[in-house]
Amino acid sequence: MVRQQLLQRASALMTRHALQPYLRNTAQRRLASGEMPKLTGAADNAFNRERMAVKQHAASSSDLWRKLSL
Q: Looking at the chain, which runs of residues are DSSP E strands?
């Protein structure tokens, strides 16, 4: 009985750990693929514009590499 419970716990842990990267990657992909917000007011400065450009470039390059690797 104890052995069966240990096997069930180990199986649950392995399943959860196996799913974590998938769930994390899915969430990151959703965040990266969304439209970038428009900067207004004080937030519209050179640093934030460059940062947004880097994020957009990273999203497009990761999408390209994902397509190439499949």
A: none
Query: Position 21: which residue type?
Result: P
Nearest one of 34, 37, 31 to 51, comparing CA atoms: 37
Distances (CA, A) of 68 to 2, 51, 63: 48, 26, 9
- Of 52, 70, 62, give the one whose Cα is nearest residue 29: 62
Nearest to 11 by CA among 26, 21, 3, 25: 3
> In this predicted model, what pLDDT tens digit does every residue of 11-66 receive, in sequence order?
777 766 665 665 566 655 655 555 666 778 888 899 999 999 999 999 999 988 88
- Tokens representing 11 are 């199986």
